[in-house]
Design goal:
four-stranded antiparallel beta sheet, single chain, Rossmann fold, 10 strands, globular, alpha/beta, about 35% helix, about 20% strand
Amino acid sequence: MTVTTTAAVSVRQLEKSFDDLPVLRGVDFEVAPGTVFALLGSNGAGKTTVVRILSTLLSADAGTAEVAGFDVATQPGDIREAISLTGQFAAVDDKLTGRENLVLVARLRHQRGPGRIADELLERFALTEAAARKVATYSGGMRRRLDTAMSLIGDPSVIFLDEPTTGLDPEARNEVWATIEKLAEGGTAVLLTTQYLDEAERLADRIAILHQGRIIVDGTLDELKQLLPPAQVEYVEKQPSLEDVFLALVGETAQTDAAPGAEPGDTVPTGKELR
């Protein structure tokens, strides 16, 4: 089927409401191939809703979206073959070994040589020594690396990572970050949703801030930093961080305002997460 856009992901005026609660109010952005695009926002901003629409798990109320050149509304089957989705929790089977998990997914995706594919991914993600161990014995970082390895089976051109480091310790987060960087270096387009500012700073080629159902800014980290008024950084020694930019753009409403983009089960993050 003919690819209709050069962007790996293209979103135009996307809207979604749940009952009378508007979650997305005209969202626009693009993700280029071989890049990491971070969709940044507080809990309840609508990040997961965007991912669910783009991965064909949810229908939009209005707007258009293309993934890997296919229309989300009219070509969902083509999109599912072209993408991979990794949620907030690793979708691995604890009762199987790491290698068995990979072989199972390769067979489900009708890949030739599932054993060979499993062994190559185990080596790529530094899991060869743990290949014969039950996944129940894996650390959080190892489980997430295995989950990401499973998502690569079939060579998807676009990968959606929905808050992939939630609940991980710093060492495990670094392991996942290194994996994401390798994905982009290999030409995969990565759409990363996160509430961790340092994660977006470390990984993203472009960053979009989603607030109250709209993209309020979209650019590189350097471009976002330039949005701060000169007076705010004139007498400080260090350069402004993404946290400075986010709070300047969104303001204190992020601390108390989970609606109108709130999603079921959302809580207010603390620490280095969006406040």
